[in-house]
Amino acid sequence: MKTQVLIVGAGPVGLTAAMDLASRGIDVVVAEIRHAGDPPSVKCNHVSSRSMEIFRRLGVAARLREAGLPADFPNDCSYRTTATGIELCRIDIPGRATRYSATGGPDTWWPTPEPPHRINQVYLEPILFDHAAAQPRIAILPRTEIVDIALHDHGVVAQARNLDDGTSFRIEAAFLIGCDGSRSMVRKSIGATLSGTPVIQRVQSTYIEAPQLRELMLPHKPAWMVLSLNPRRSGTTVAIDGHDRWLIHNHLKSDEPDFDSVDRDWAIRAILGVDENFQYTILSEEDWVGRRLVADRFRDRRVFICGDAAHLWMPYAGYGMNAGIADAVDLCWQLAAHLNGWAPASILDAYEAERQPITEQVSRFAMDHALAMMAQRSGVSAEIEDDTPRGHAARASLAKAAYDLNVQQYCCAGLNFGYYYDASPIIAYDGETPPPYTMGSFTPSTVPGARAPHLFLRDGRSLYDAFGPGYTLLRFDRAIDVAPLRAAAERRGMPLASVDIAADEADNAFAEKLVLVRPDQHIAWRGKVAPDDPDALISRIIGAAHGAAIARPGVMLPA
């Protein structure tokens, strides 16, 4: 079997990589050890705004938006003494029915065509799988294990095994992407090692069915996530279907080194605030360890790693899977540029240069936030549930502290829109320092490397919907002659779309007259006038700045 790109792993990251490549005309084979249709883990509960922007471009955002919790189910985060106890505070997040129209919330102002979406992986992944499987350029091989990888000058040979009948076969590809999770065989095959903090916290996590629980939580308004803070046992209750199914996280303490250090049933009841008469059924045990580990390399020549294969961290802000999706898109447009013949192989040097520093930075955001939350849980007053002046004061104090700490996590504008690539070989920097960002805040910017600011055009379209599949030149002054830049792109075979926007239509989001945007919506170059040397600029942004030759790569392997 031969293909242009072999992807190992059909989780959300691998499926996104496959869809992105296919959308750019690349043939893909995806090897997955599970059966088609096997239910995924319940571990991920949030698709970021940035990921939804990607899914919008791939044509699957609308279907995802219709799935998950009921349309009228609030996506709020409610802090309580127990899940059925006293509410301390609430972070208001709109549900599906009002997600596009709501105002006044901590994330309703975001400059994006696609707000975030609270949806568990059990609903997300099947939709992505079906959408990918329907693409003619994608072949998904269920029950297929990749057991060995051999790198050659002109391609990769993977030895595969059918897990149902034991037969072996080989897959030849120009490139291979490992999206095969935390125990990644691909990561090991390229000699990459994880380093960082191996254990931040252990979490005893249980997926349950409990039809009575929603009623017991009244009179509080429903919430996507209920976080219990009390001196006995702090934990998190996540609504999976908005009816009967819940995921309970029991955050183990530093002196509880094993998942069985605490009786599971006792912990669930303490978190929920229910007695021994409450009935529930355990559907699965989903225990996990929060870490901060980043691979020392994301690539060996024609083999790359993305997602959990490349980095593991505390899943705060929902940025485990979402960071993997960002990896996949960053890599795949570059791979497609090379495979489609308009960029040399040197463009691929940008993937590790761009994603590894961001991964390191965001992993530290997540770890620092995890440590702050652990401290908050351990410091809950013994009087938090008392109906006394001291009890009321303790609740008021914790309510403010919990809101202030966690609104930046659950409404993390900075992680969605603020990150930038500041050391990429394919970005034309101009010396301006990008504005700083935090987990929860950012400043829109046109500094090269940043995400292009979003706006809605006068005709109602999202600016991103007006972008072409390759590079897009935004022009805010029709008097500027961009013909030489277009000609330079054409000489290289680089796809370049153009969008003219009136200055008053830009709403002060763009100070420059010209902004050149990459296929992943990050800015490659900007200027107040056309570039003096358009050929040099095009060479820079396609990775040919040092005279690299461009040859259309095929799967050329020894017999």
Name the descriptors:
9-stranded mixed beta sheet; 559 residues; 8-stranded mixed beta sheet; disordered C terminus
Can you tell me about this structure?
- The chain has 559 residues and is of the alpha+beta class.
- Helices cover 28% and strands 23% of the residues.
- The chain has helices at 12-23, 49-57, 61-65, 121-133, 185-189, 213-216, 264-272, 319-339, 349-378, 389-410, 413-418, 463-466, 483-492, 534-541; strands spanning 2-8, 28-31, 46-47, 77-80, 87-91, 117-118, 138-141, 144-152, 155-162, 168-178, 194-209, 225-228, 235-239, 245-251, 281-285, 288-295, 299-300, 303-305, 311-313, 471-475, 496-500, 514-517, 523-527.
- Strands 4, 5, 11, 12, 13, 14, 15, 16 and 19 form a nine-stranded mixed β-sheet that branches.
- It is globular, with a radius of gyration of 24 Å.
Structure described in brief:
It is built from 14 helices and 23 strands.
Number-wise, the strands total: 23
DSSP summary: helix tally: 14
Question: Structural class given helices, strands, pairing?
Answer: alpha+beta
Strand content: 15-25%
Rg for CA atoms: 24 Å
Distance between the termini: 13 Å
Task: Enumerate the spans where pLDDT stays under 50 for 5 or more consecutive residues.
Answer: 547-559
Quaternary structure state of the chains depicted? single chain
Overall helicity: 25-40%
Arithmetic mean pLDDT: 94
Shape: globular
Biggest sheet details: 9 strands, mixed
